[in-house]
Every structure is written in C-alpha cells, then in structure tokens.
TrEMBL record:
Keywords: Membrane, Transmembrane, Transmembrane beta strand. InterPro entries: Bac_surfAg_D15, BamA/TamA_POTRA, D15-like, POTRA. Its main location: membrane. GO terms for cellular component: outer membrane. Residues 42-118 form the POTRA domain. It comes from Roseivirga echinicomitans. It is found in: Membrane. This is POTRA domain-containing protein. It holds the Pfam family Omp85. Gene3D superfamilies: membrane protein fhac, membrane protein fhac: a member of the omp85/tpsb transporter family.
Amino acid sequence: MIGITLKKSLKGIAILTFLCVLSLRGFGQNTLFTDSLSAGYIKIGKTYITGNKKTKAEIILRELDFIEGDKVDIQEFNQSIVLSQQKLINTRLFITVEVVPLFTSDTEVDILIRLQERWYIFPLPIFKLADRNFTEWWVNQKRDFSRVNYGIQLYHFNLTGRNDKLIFRTQFGFTKQYELQYQRPYINKAQTLGLTLRTSFANNKTVATNTDGHRLEFEQSDDINRRIFSSSGTLTYRPSFYSRHSIDAGFSRASVSELITDANSEYFQNGEALQKYFRLSYVYSWDNRDYFAYPLSGNLFRGEVSNYGLGIFNDLNMFSLRGSTSNFFDLGGKLYLANSLEGYYNFSDEIPYMLRSGFGYRPDFIRGYERYVVESNAFVSNRSEFKYKFISGIQVLSRRSLIDQFRTMPYAFYFKAFVDMGYTGDPIRSTTNNFYNRELMLSAGLGLDIVTYYDFVVRFEFSVNRQKQTGFFVNFRSAL
C-alpha cells in the first residue's frame, strides 16, 4: 500500500514539475542599451555585409532585429544592435561578428556587418571513449583502451552557404557505426521551416546488460551481440528569433544475441531478442541565450512530449514528458550566475533496459556522481553555479596564415563554485541494489571552465557529494 501511494505521489510531483517548468519560459530580453541618444525614432537605411565569402546574405539578414526601412525607437536601438550580434554568433557560422551603426543623419542610419567566417570543412579522425563520460572510463573501466572508438568523420557546417550541415561518419573499435546526416535550417522562402534527415547503423560485441549498485555490468564475446538500425526526420518551425517547434519521427530496429537475453530477459520488452518501433516526439523551445555553447545571460526553456511504439508493433509502448528551464544572469564585474531546473516522467510500467533513462546518461547528470548511473521512470534535478571570468581575450596565432579562420583564437577562463541536487523515483525493474533511488542526491564543488576555439569547452571540477565522496572530474561541454 505504501509503495502504491509513493508511486502515485511521484507521478503527481513529476507532472506538477513539468507544468511548473512550462510556466517558467524566458520572459524577455535584458535591457542592454545606454541612454546616450535622445528620444525619437531612427530609420534603418542600407545594410552592408563584409567577410561573408561563403554564407549567403539572406541567412545573415534573417538574424537581424531590424530590416531596411524600419523605424526603430532610438532608446531601443543599441539593444537591437547587441541582440543582432548575439544571434549572428549563435548561428555558429562566424568566429567574430561586429554590427556597426553608420549614422548618415540625426534620423537615419546605415548598418555595417563585419564578419570573420569559421572554417566549415572538417575531415577529422575519430578517437573517443565509448563510455558515458571520462570518469566512467578512467575509474570504472580502469582506462581500458579496448573501449575506444576510432575512424574518420566529415563535417561540412555550411555546405551551400545556407547554414546547412552534412555529417558522414565511419567508426570502428568498441562500436562499429556508419552514419549520414543532413540538416537544412530553412527550406521555404519565408525562412521559417527547416528539415533534418539522418540514418545510422551500429553494432557491438560488448553490451551493457545490467546495473548493480548503480554500476553498469557488461557482456562480451568475439561475436556481434547487438545490431541497431535507425532512421529519422525532423521538421522544425521557427516563427520568431527565439521560439522553435520541432516534430521528430523515426524508426529503429535493434536485435541482440542470446548472450544478452540470457543476461537480462528484460533488455527488450517481453523478453524478445528483436525490438522494432516508431518514435514520434514534439519539442518546443524558447532560447534567447547570448551564446549557445557557453551562455552568460538569457533564458532557455524546453518542453518535450515523446511516444515510443505508436501501436504499430506490439513490443513497445512508452509515453514520456520532459521539461527544463535554464536562466543565466550577468551580475556585472565579470560575475555570473546560472541555474537549470529539469523534470522527467515516463508513464510506462515496463521500461526495457535498452531505453533506460536517468542520471548518468546524457543529458542528465548530477556533478559528484559521475561514477554512477541512477535509472528511473522519473526524476527532477537542479544545477546552480556562480562564476568569475578572470581571463579573456583573442590570441593572434599567425598573421601570415593563408587561412583567415586560423589566424586568431578567442579564449576565456572562468573560476566557479557550484551546487547540484536531484531526486529520482522508482528504479526500473531490471536493476538491483538501487540505494540512490528515492534519495536526495546533493553535491557541491569548485571548478575551472575554459572556453575557446569553435565552441570548445573543457571543465575541471572538484566536488564532494552527500555521501562525502570526493573526486576530480574532467568534462568537455558546459554543465548548464
């Protein structure tokens, strides 16, 4: 009776959390303009663009807060300039962006946009860890180099000059994978609809089949033990600069060997060795952060509704809700504050082990618990950090470089303090010794963030959790 009551309470808490998050969307924009101009309106004249050797002008003009012929309130003009500059940076097409007003009279202004484009084509070798994070590989898997993926990948981040992306990956090692993806942000004349298509095939000889004490347990052999084929398409609708709607539809087919089903009969639903399903999800986001890779001001809200199965195949039927809100504050004096709140609930009573969710799996984590996975049908988390930017600038690498995109390197260093907390609901059935489920997870620590070229972020963090376990962790993306 107590278990039933607790499960109903958790379900109510999860739904309430999701609804609360829905109400916390970004309310507006920071007031960044100065009062140096007098009251009245100013007319936008011609717009001049320099430095866009590859990028089409319409992609650049789409991000501006104004168009030629607009009459803009002078008191809001400076803010429009700053916001336009931020949005151009967030296209991830340019290293540097300057939006410069050229006043032709007291009531008219032309706009000069100076850009330095990124290098868009990256044929890169693949050499990355197959595990959840660096700590999982370093500590739990004892730095086993057989758990490394290697291969070659080709990225083209501006294929036709319209901010469209082509990705091709051939990967070997721990996971053998072939992947092809094409993304075009605008497919209509109004530049409001976008489309992404992707397909991939992967197989593994080593597969995580169980979780005991929040540590993954693996089965392996000389034969292939898991094959996964997936294909999907995403249609996006961007009616304004900050809001985006996405509908994603996909199909997956996965099969496992007898070794895997013997180790965990609930790896797939109903104890099957083959799992096929269609997936449909809807995502709404409101994003006015100043810099996507490492935001310092602005807001991000995201709500997601997903269903796995769609009633076409009988072996899977899952419905889930997810919501998050992140807020970033520039406190002045190189001080910054950030907070992120997230909630998730899976309404299915039978969650196959392969499709488990919880802390420890991207994108969900609590710092200080990087060694563990805490699977559950529901969770809520909050991450906060206070930081100080003590070094920043642009380093000239070589004035003689034949490639403009590699002549300079921007950088910034942040010292920070953080506090994370989380709570999960019931564990999924095919896990054991779940001492962190239904318990408050709490941690605090200090860290150093380095932000540099091409959205590269590295985090060095020392943390202590509620159980007084300490650790030094290295990660390669922003925590919030």
